[in-house]
Amino acid sequence: MGIDPLEYFETLWQDSVPKDGMEHTKEVWNNMAKYWFDFSQHKKEGKRDIVCAVVDFLKQKGALTEESKVIDIGCGPGEYASEMAKTAKEVVCSDISDIMIGFCKDSVTADNVSFICTDFFDIDIEKSGYKNGFDLVFTSLTPAVSGLDSVKRINEISCGYCFNQSFVYRQDNIKDGIDIHVRGVEPSTNVGNSSCYCMFNMLWNMGYHPEITYYTQFTNKEILVSADLAESYARSIIKMGDVDVKFIDDIHKYLKSIAKDGAVTVKNEAKLAWTLWHI
Ligand SMILES: C[S@@+](CC[C@H](N)C(=O)[O-])C[C@H]1O[C@@H](n2cnc3c(N)ncnc32)[C@H](O)[C@@H]1O
Question: Residue 72 and residue 96: Cα distance in Å, rounded?
Answer without folding.
Answer: 12
